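P.,

For your records, the input lines for the assembly:
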Amino acid sequence: MSNRTLRSAIALLLVAAGAVFVLVTRSFGLLSAGGAGYSYIADIDYWQRTPRERLARSRYALDLAHELSQVPLTIGDWKGEEVPQSNEGVFMILEPEQYDERLYRNGQDQYLWLTMIGGRSSRTFHPPESCYESYGWQTELTSQAMTLENGDVIYGMLVDARKDSTEQLAFYIYLFPDRSRDPRDGLVIFRLTSPLYGSIEQTVEMQQAFLRHFFTAAQPTGGI
Amino acid sequence: MVSRKTPLYFGCVAVLLLIGAGFAGCAGPGKGVGGSSVGGPSAPSGSCGLNLPADTTPEEAIYAVIAAESKDVVSQEIGLLMRLWAEDAAITDAQHTPGDAADDRTWKGQDAIRYRYVRDVFPSAPGAAQPRELQTQVIGNRAVVTGTTGIGAEVSPSGDSWELRKVGDCWVIQSLTYNREP
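Structure tokens returned:
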């Protein structure tokens, strides 16, 4: 084999390797991941990029390239069970590409719902608080910083919903495969809902403990 | 002159271009679903960011802040809007039941207020918004303003109650309660 042929073969191999690298990292959300797990762009809104946008690392795949139903039902000391959505109207209105809801319980008999909804249309992602409002609940919306095990902070929106003597806290984050936030790539809303256990702070702490099993790091993306 | 670039050179360039193309999709500024990119993080400046004359009275400064809020809603300038609001500000929709908080909707803090503008207000694309019939009461470093706001064809007579706070020399919005009219 001549030197020229050898160089051509090496060049072709490098091109092929580069193409495979790009395809794999884009498909699996591994860009900048620097290790096992999945990287996502997390934000408190999907209409516009906000200063709270973070590059988040997740232990589990939370994107439309994967089945959300593959998220384990045992997360730390939380044991979950699938809660099939019985209201057909949810699918008619939201038209989600993926919809998965679980009820998890921990050793203290506390429970929370994890709802993961994925889609590529704005129709799928109406604000969760609007559901409460349509049923006559009083709502207060704030942003909530959740501190991860390594000290990083990830932000979501927190709905404090009250009706009569019932109070629920719903925390949610929007997850994108990458920073282009291209609707065609889809996004996932990751939502935790629980009744109030003690104070709001204590309930947020419980949700934070659950969240830490999913997200291991969150870094600012450099602003907007 | 004969090029001395080898196939290896072209191969490396191709690889770099491919990788670059992949990263470009992850690093560039982008748009969310149905939205556009936004301005930078907000540092509340209130009336101090409006280039008002030095001899502006408190009442004039307060009116200027509320008028700026209306103007920025129409132009959908979220960065400018958020600079009018205090970090711990709140907006409450009284749902036309001012005496009953049980059905109120509240947005608390800058993130939630930003969220409301972007999600609830901007999509309706109001072509005009103007505060009217403002009644201002200044008590030390606080001011309470009641007024009528017309957003497009929607007019809320005495439906709005604003509270502003003076921070340093700047008046910033502390709260807004709307839909107060029964």
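Two observations worth noting. Residues 1-32 of chain A form one domain. The helical segments of chain A are 3-28, 88-94, 128-134, 200-211.

Regards
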